[in-house]
Amino acid sequence: MPRKSTTTPVTAVPMGDGAVLDLAEGDGGARPTFRRAAHIPLQTLDDIRVEQARVYRRMAGGRVSSQEGARMIWSLSQIAKVIEASILETRLVALEQLAARAVGHGSP
Fold it and tell me: Using CA atoms, how far apart are residues 34 and 26, in angstroms rounded to an integer?
């Protein structure tokens, strides 16, 4: 019995440096086109929240497979964890410096 294919057709291929070879669009789908991926800011937790919502809407609209969307959401969650750790580290350093100054001045 032949095995059923579980692969998803490729519609876009990353070409590096933000460029994407789009195989699904351009001249009625007959000719691939190149497009630049938009720069998406991912510097703050709010940036991550906005991008996760965008990915969710793309999945809900059928423009991104649930498997690919889940990968993107997971990656964004990992970036959020790093941002959270960085914020906590910055606050901890500030508290340690404040405590060191208080000890140095004889304050309890």
Answer: 9
85, amino acid identity: A
One pLDDT digit (tens) per residue for the chain, 108 residues: 555 555 555 566 555 555 555 555 444 555 655 566 678 889 999 999 999 999 999 999 999 999 999 999 999 999 999 999 999 999 999 999 999 999 887 655
DSSP the chain: -PPPP-PPPP-EEEEETTEEEESS-SGGGTS-EEEEPPP---SSHHHHHHHHHHHHHHHHTTSS-HHHHHHHHHHHHHHHHHHHHHHHHHHHHHHHHHHHHHHHTT--
Distance of CA 106 to the CA centre of its chain: 47
Contact 83, 45 (CB under 8 A): yes
**Whether pTM exceeds 0.85:** no
